[in-house]
Specification:
Layout: E1 7-9, H1 13-29, H2 37-40, E2 43-45, H3 49-52, H4 58-61, H5 69-76, E3 82-86, E4 98-102, E5 111-114, E6 129-131, H6 135-144, E7 149-151, H7 157-165, E8 171-175, H8 176-182, E9 190-191, E10 206-211, H9 218-227, H10 230-246, E11 253-261, E12 264-272, E13 279-287, H11 291-309
Parallel strand pairs: 1-2, 1-3, 6-7, 6-8
Antiparallel strand pairs: 3-10, 4-10, 5-8, 5-9, 11-12, 12-13
The chain binds ligand PBG.
Residues 86, 88-89, 174-175, 177-178, 203-204 line the site of the ligand NCc1[nH]cc(CCC(=O)O)c1CC(=O)O.
Catalytic activity: 4 porphobilinogen + H2O = hydroxymethylbilane + 4 NH4(+)
Domain Porphobilinogen deaminase N-terminal: 5-215
Domain Porphobilinogen deaminase C-terminal: 234-304
Length: 321
């Protein structure tokens, strides 16, 4: 592979921010002068099916893959060379011919509490209205506060922030990482604990996807080595191992978070009933893990949670708060 290295990106502000960050990082790794970045590593905008659908029927028509399908087709057809995704939105399996070449260092993995009127989650009054489209956030919030009224909130981050500012909800929850990449962290009232709001698998991490056949080309090997963050890649492997075993989807409330401290991997994974009244959680550790070890630990713990919790998938028709 040679220049130009074309980066395919969705058109949302978040996708453009993430792709722009990675465009600059790849440019630095390859010593591309600032003035030449736009021609050497251009951004190519691609509209995905997921971007066109803004209502809850999204859940019924195909979930996560809707945001990646057209981009993956462009990679396979050779119209682009690189794609940047939120790891959280990447399905468990890569299509034939594609791979995740690098996983850069993770941003803050926590969820953020956003509210016009209240300082913290604990300060919400009885029966307060909480906006979220995430079954995981719904279940985790209800586990702490069964009195809350959870209501569907879709749309991009700006839309959600505007609706919170207008008082359509007493509070909303968003990933800290997405807000940080958009430069809107001033709206965060509280960063929620990793324990109470165990994040979605891969939350806060990015995935850099390429054609598998091109990964060892010298130009690629260079930026891949510079951008891949092994600790993040190992933690994400554990979380996604758990996700696979839990058959996690947007119809199940599933969380997984791993970190490496003192050369050991610590993984927590859980499933909740949609109303938060039941919670099945497992934790595990592994010294000096490889990515394969981490994935295996995730699969084992996720499998235990799955066997214990049973099938918690909800009918999307009922997923309305
Ligand atoms: N499901 C939507 C989505 N996909 C990725 C992010 C940003 C967070 C991330 O990079 O993990 C968000 C928004 C959110 O959850 O608030």
């Amino acid at each position: 592979m040679t220049f130009p290295l074309r980066i395919g990106t969705r058109r949302s502000k978040l996708a453009l921010a993430q792709s722009g960050m990675m465009q600059r990082a790849i440019g630095r790794a390859l010593n591309v002068p600032e003035a030449e970045i736009e021609t050497a590593i251009p951004l190519v905008e691609i509209v995905t099916t997921g971007d066109r659908i803004q209502d809850r029927r999204l859940l019924e028509v195909g979930g996560k893959a809707l945001f990646t399908k057209e981009i993956e087709e462009a990679l396979l057809a050779g119209r682009i060379d690189i794609a940047i995704h939120s790891m959280k939105d990447v399905p468990a399996e890569q299509p034939d011919g594609l791979c995740i070449a690098a996983i850069p260092e993770r941003e803050d993995a926590r969820d953020a509490f956003i509210s016009r009127d209240f300082d913290s989650f604990d300060a919400l009054p009885f029966g307060a209205r909480l906006g979220t489209a995430s079954l995981r956030r719904q279940a985790q919030a209800l586990a702490l506060r069964p009195d809350l009224k959870v209501e569907m909130l879709r749309g991009n981050i700006d839309t959600r922030l505007r609706r919170a500012a207008e008082g359509d909800f007493d509070a909303i929850l968003l990933a800290v990482s997405g807000m940080a990449r958009l430069g809107v962290t001033e709206h965060i009232r509280e960063k929620l604990s990793l324990d109470a709001f165990l994040p979605a698998p891969g939350q806060g991490a990015l995935a850099i996807q390429t054609r598998a056949a091109d990964i060892d080309a010298p130009l690629n090997a260079h930026w891949v080595a510079a951008l891949n963050h092994p600790e993040t890649a190992i933690a994400v492997a554990a979380e996604r191992g758990a996700m696979t075993a839990l058959e996690g989807s947007c119809r199940t409330a599933v969380g997984a978070y791993a970190l490496i401290a003192n050369d050991a991997l610590h993984l927590t994974t859980e499933m909740l009933s949609p109303d938060g009244s039941a919670r099945w959680r497992r934790v595990g550790d592994l010294a000096q893990p490889t990515e394969a070890d981490a994935r295996a630990l995730g699969q084992r713990l996720g499998g235990e949670v799955h066997a214990w919790a049973g099938d918690q998938e909800v009918d999307p028709a009922t997923l309305d708060g």
